[in-house]
Amino acid sequence: MPHVSALLIIDMQNALVAISHRASATVAAIAGLRERAKAAGVPIVTVQHRGEGVEVGTEGWQIVPELVPSADEAVVHKTSADSFLNTDLDGTLQALGVTEVVVTGFATEICVDTTARQALSHRYDVVLVADGHTTSHRPASSELAPPEQSIAHHNEIYRHLDFPGRSIRVLSASEVHFTPVETPRSAP
């Protein structure tokens, strides 16, 4: 089976990016990956959460302008941290012939982590983009790890995560290289 990547962009919606740590840098990293994926013909799948604070049709629910999917890109709607649960994500990836997901988005320790682990369970290889995922701002008094520490922690966990039969890599956005997808030629 040929190796086919897809760029997975999770929950990069107005309301969520507004509360994100290093939002502009994360959006820029993902936007750069998105442009390179498009240029290589690599599928891009946008995951859009709906729920409290991100109700369907509201401004907060909309994907940030820099990452709005084009008409030919897949959009998957979810209602939980798991982008595979009760969605058509797996079917979408299978239909595209995808064997590896390049994971980006919000929030590191919730939707990004849950979806990346579920991708492994669904038999996809995973690339976690080290500077392409983020989490929420938090007060210093929070019992949650500070954002930079949480992001670094998850990147390190994925560097050591062992999942039989699966490839797991943690790469910066600049280290992600998309292999151009060849389109079949028509017979003369």
Automatic annotation (TrEMBL):
- Taxonomically, the superkingdom here is Bacteria
Q: What is this protein called?
A: Isochorismatase
User: Whose protein is this, by species?
Assistant: Streptomyces daqingensis
Q: Where is the Isochorismatase-like domain?
A: 5-138
Q: Name the lineage.
A: Bacteria, Bacillati, Actinomycetota, Actinomycetes, Kitasatosporales
Per the record, the coiled-coil ranges are none
Recorded hits in SUPFAM superfamilies, A to Z, give:
Isochorismatase-like hydrolases
Any idea which UniProt keywords this protein has?
Answer: Hydrolase
Q: Which Gene3D superfamilies does this entry report, sorted A to Z?
A: Isochorismatase-like
